[in-house]
Structures are given as C-alpha cells and as structure tokens.
Amino acid sequence: MSIDHLSRPGRSPGSTTFYNQRGVAVTDQWLVVGGRRFQIAELDHFERARGPMSSPVRAALLIGVAELVVVAPVAFVFSTPAAWAIAALTAAAALGGMMFAGQRWPASFQMWADYRSRPTLLFETGNEQEFGQVSRALIRAIERGRRSPHR
User: What are the alphabetically sorted keywords of the record (predicted)?
Assistant: First the structure.
C-alpha cells in the first residue's frame, strides 16, 4: 500500500515517512492502518499493551486446572508412589499443554491512544517484530509533532 494517496494535494514539502509496509504507514502527519487514518497531531496518551489471552490458551489453562483438581486429591488419598507419579505426569502434561498453546497462540500486541478524546485501538498484530517497528515509528512521529511549532 502506497501512502502517496494520503495527502498528495496540499502535502507539506518536508513530510517524512517513518514506516510503510504491509498496509501500515506512519508519516509525521498520519498513521494509516488497513485504510483507517489517524492524524498524528490528534493522538494523545499513546500506550502499548498485550491483548487478551487467546481462546486456545484459555481452554488449555482450564483443562490443566481441571486435571489437577481431579488428580491431586486422588494422589493425597492413595498416597502411593504410583499415585504421586501419575499426579506428577498429569501436572507435567497440563503444564506442557499450556506452554504449547501459549507459544502457538500468543496474545496480540496492541497500540492504543486517545484519538479525538476517545480511547482507540490504533494497531494490533501477533508479529512482535512488526509491532516493534510500527510502535517505534509512531513514537518518532508523535515526538516530531510535539517539537513542531505549528501543532
């Protein structure tokens, strides 16, 4: 996606592009994400966050807790080496399932700001590298806007 269409008519001569890849563009005047445009000068209280836990991770956590709730009392009641071994293996399997789900379906990375005085999700991705690049570009754009005398 090219950002030439953003403000070609009346585009200021010193406009700087900080990032322009995969449908996301950050200039000193605009943040464009998937066709949505946000004016940099109208962004306040910029924050980076992690999204909610994904459904598969939540399910793995719930299953793991349910397994432990069933197996732990059995191990305490029978208190034999075999019962403790089964409890330990069940705990290891539950932990492994949760770790696998967390790696496979991690929480998304999000950028939020008040845009025109409303909390707004500006950008969200599961790609940590892309998130870092876009957030650094947006921080540079916001900082440049604050230093600009005509803000």
Answer: Membrane, Transmembrane, Transmembrane helix
